[in-house]
Design a protein that fits this description.
The protein is built from 8 helices and 7 strands; from the N terminus they run ααβααβααββαββαβ. By secondary structure, it is of the alpha/beta class. The strands form 2 sheets. Strands 1-7-6-2-3 form a 5-stranded parallel β-sheet, with helices on both faces. Helix 8 links the parallel strand 6 and strand 7. Helix 4 crosses helix 6. The chain binds zinc ion.
């Protein structure tokens, strides 16, 4: 609550959060429903780890709120689970105690879309997650990767082949940025076919970033 503006405080009093599962007042997801959110099945790519099952209507609602309804604090709902996955990942890679540099890269939006939306939801997720992990040597980097093409909203494209095509070469590494052997962890809200992550990874690898993994909220 302390991070809220005066206007947000008034809004939160007028329109308090209700649980997306059972409509209980007080939070976007109540403690009881939080325990029943189903885990994601394994994504098609082994370098992607997803947390929740996107088929669950509550997850869909939360993601929609985060992306399209300006409900920025929906990122806080996902942060604990993301922090858990991140901790596990760092442990597996032997990086928890400083084995190498890790950069957390929220998958960027095009400049146009970010301007329209006012924020990048993946960036909100990254910040909310790292806020729960004090002392971990990871930095968020929003100036490494950029989205060059304003592709159609993936949700508007129904055909899988079109989705894949839509993303072909839409990311690039910011000019002048080179790898010094860091591990890059991409963070995004949802992966379906993995096409967005694949395109981002392709751009990173072309620029010499060879260790690229991804975490998404839902699959
Ligand atoms: Zn509930």
């Amino acid at each position: 609550v302390c991070g809220m503006s005066f206007f947000q405080k008034i809004l939160s009093v007028l329109f308090p959060d209700r649980c997306v599962g059972c409509e209980t007042l007080g939070a976007l997801v109540c403690a009881e429903c939080a325990h029943t959110l189903p885990p994601a099945s394994s994504p098609e790519r082994d370098f992607i780890t997803s947390v929740f099952a996107y088929r669950d209507p509550r997850i869909r609602i939360l993601v929609r709120m985060l992306k399209y309804k300006n409900t920025r604090h929906a990122a806080d709902v996902f942060a604990p689970a993301l922090a858990g996955v991140l901790t596990e990942f760092l442990g597996e890679e032997g990086m928890l105690l400083g084995g190498g540099d890790v950069i957390l890269v929220p998958v960027p939006l095009s400049r146009k879309r970010k301007k329209t939306r006012g924020y990048n939801q993946a960036e909100l997720l990254a910040r909310a997650t790292l806020a729960l992990m004090p002392g971990v040597r990871i930095r968020i980097d929003t100036n490494l990767l950029e989205k060059t093409v304003d592709t159609k909203q993936q949700a508007d494209i129904t055909k899988r082949s079109e989705r894949l095509q839509n993303l072909g070469d839409c990311f690039r590494v910011v000019s002048g940025r080179t790898s010094s052997g860091e591990t890059v962890l991409l963070l995004d809200d949802v992966t379906t076919t993995g096409a967005t992550i694949m395109a981002a990874r392709k751009a990173l690898r072309a620029a010499g970033f060879h260790k690229v993994y991804a975490i998404t909220v839902a699959h």
